[in-house]
């Protein structure tokens, strides 16, 4: 389980901690815990879930726009294992999947 928010210390790739506290979260609850990025990146299977229209823009930006480091934490997930995205129609509505076969497109 991950609660990774943009430009937070929990995005430190060099931490030795497996679990980190999240304080003053921008979304409820304000205090929670998260697995660290090194633990997430060491996972064999990673699944992202996004449901609803409110997630459409961030899903599109994460999967199709190269962002500045730390501004889209999901882009920092670099696993040697399998990474899957489970989306509903509304959260996937802005994706331009036809361009994904274009070698010049990012990612």
Characterise this structure.
This protein has 107 residues and is α+β, with helices and mostly antiparallel strands. It is 13% helix and 19% strand. The chain contains two helices and four strands; from the N terminus they run ββαβαβ. The protein has helices spanning 37-41, 56-64, and strands spanning 19-22, 32-35, 45-50, 82-87. The strands form two sheets. Strands 1-2 form a two-stranded antiparallel sheet. The longest helix has 9 residues, at 56-64. It is globular and about 40 Å long. It starts with 18 loop residues before the first strand and ends in a 20-residue tail after the last strand. The model has no long low-confidence stretch (mean pLDDT 91).
Oligomer designation: single chain
Largest β sheet strand count, sense and barrel closure: 2 strands, antiparallel
Shape: globular
Total count of strands: 4
Strand order of the largest sheet: 1-2
Beta-strand proportion: 15-25%
Number of helices: 2
Radius of gyration: 14 Å
Point out poorly predicted stretches: none
Helix/strand order, N-terminal first? EEHEHE
Structural class: alpha+beta
What number is the mean pLDDT?
91
Helix content: 10-25%
N- to C-terminal separation? 24 Å
SSE blueprint and pairings:
Elements: E1 19-22, E2 32-35, H1 37-41, E3 45-50, H2 56-64, E4 82-87
Parallel strand pairs: 3-4
Antiparallel strand pairs: 1-2
């Amino acid at each position: 389980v991950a609660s990774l928010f943009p430009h937070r210390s929990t995005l430190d790739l060099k931490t030795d901690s497996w679990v980190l506290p999240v304080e003053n979260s921008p979304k409820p609850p304000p205090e929670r815990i998260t697995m660290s990025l090194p633990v997430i990146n060491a996972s064999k299977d990673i699944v992202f879930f996004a449901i609803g229209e409110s997630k459409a823009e961030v899903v599109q930006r994460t999967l199709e726009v190269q962002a500045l480091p730390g501004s889209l934490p999901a882009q920092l997930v670099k696993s040697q294992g399998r990474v899957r995205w489970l989306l509903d129609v509304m959260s996937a509505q802005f994706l331009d999947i036809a361009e994904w076969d274009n070698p010049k497109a990012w990612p």
